[in-house]
Amino acid sequence: MAEKNSERKIGLVTFTDNISIIGDGSKDPLRINGGDLNNYDLILKNSVVSASTSLQEPLKKTRKSLDTAVDNLRATGSTALGPGMLSAIGLAGEGSPGS
Q1: Per-residue model confidence (pLDDT) at position 2
Q2: Phi, psi for 55 (deg, rounded to 5)
Q3: How far apart are CA 99 and CA 96, in angstroms?
Q4: Mean pLDDT score of the chain, rounded to an integer?
Q5: Alpha-carbon gap, residue 79 to 97, rounded angstroms
Q6: Residues with Cβ < 8 Å from 91, sequence gap 6 or more?
Q7: Is residue 23 part of a domain?
Q8: Which range marks the domain in which residue 40 is found?
Q9: Closest of 47, 50, 49 to residue 39, by C-alpha
């Protein structure tokens, strides 16, 4: 993707017992923890806001930071799959077509 579609914007969301909205890796991640994982509106709102602040740069500018973020992933704790997916869908829904 980095070679053929370097202008696309890529966002990363990770989840264990919390959610980390990493976005394109150009800003500090936004974390959602604890009881907030059950708050649908808060998760969706934070995902949409994160898209406007941390999903702005194309892959050709963010590849190294995204590679580092993926390399540093570790499985820990429980899995907030539903809230994590909601966050990822909220972030992706704000991206432009093809991103």
Answers
A1: 82
A2: -140, 55
A3: 6
A4: 90
A5: 29
A6: 11, 13, 21, 23, 47, 48, 50, 51, 55
A7: yes
A8: 12-93
A9: 47
Q: Is 68 helix (H, G, I), strand (E, B) or coil?
A: helix
pLDDT average, residue stretch 3-13? 91
Q: Is the pLDDT of residue 99 over 60?
A: no
Q: Is residue 6 part of a domain?
A: no
8 Å CB contact between 83 and 45: no
- Does residue 55 fall inside a structural domain? yes
For residue 96, what pLDDT is reported?
67
Q: Determine, yes or no, domain membership for 5.
A: no
Q: What is the mean pLDDT of residues 65-91?
A: 91
Number of domains in the chain: 1
**What pLDDT score does 45 carry?**
94
Give the CA count within 13 Å in the CB-facing half-sphere of 7.
Answer: 3
Half-sphere exposure of residue 9: CA atoms within 13 angstroms, side-chain side: 19
Show the tokens assigned to 45.
């709102």
